[in-house]
Amino acid sequence: MMNELLIQNIEKSLQLSKPELEQLCSYFEPKVIQKKEFLLTQGSVCKFEGFVLEGCFRVFILDKKGKENTLYFAIKDWWLMDIDSFMNQNPSNLNIQALEDSKILLINRKDKLTLYDTIPATEKLFRIMSQKAIVAWQRRLINNHCQTAKERYHDFAETYPNIVSKLTDKQIASYLGITHEFLSKIKKSSKGL
């Protein structure tokens, strides 16, 4: 069954014929994930690449002290995975958790590699997606080094208003690399602006 949201996402990067789209979509398995359920846990191997249909996911690591450090969030129309674990089949350092009841389409590594052989254009599609992800990571890294915490918060809130509304202050603070208390001060000082 073809999923319209997945097709729209694909067609932003690549034009495929209807039979190719049908074949590509046939490799994705739908899955419902309940709020607080983990799609991936640290130490397990990431066996999927996912496309979010509904809901919100948080990708985070636990440091040696047990502190959560959020790397990114994924909402409707976003891709989700641990690329290192998925590509190299080694244990993941990441946790992927649903922040609300969610629906996702998953493709496994074997099927993705089969797609590369049967529909060669899909390799271009996933390359483009990887490049976009690298750009996003680079921008985030630059912002973390060049912006104040207040600037990072405002940039995040402006860029991703649909995500901010779904998150707790603790989750946002974890993403920004600041304490919950410091985020509260930033938000309080911003109300007068």
Automatic annotation (TrEMBL):
Q: Which domain of life is it from?
A: Bacteria
> Cyclic nucleotide-binding domain location, by residue?
31-116
- What InterPro entries has UniProt attached to this entry? cNMP-bd_dom, cNMP-bd_dom_sf, RmlC-like_jellyroll
Where are the membrane-spanning stretches? none
CDD domains associated with the record: CAP_ED
Q: What is this protein called?
A: Crp/Fnr-type transcriptional regulator
Q: Which organism is it from?
A: Zobellia galactanivorans (strain DSM 12802 / CCUG 47099 / CIP 106680 / NCIMB 13871 / Dsij)
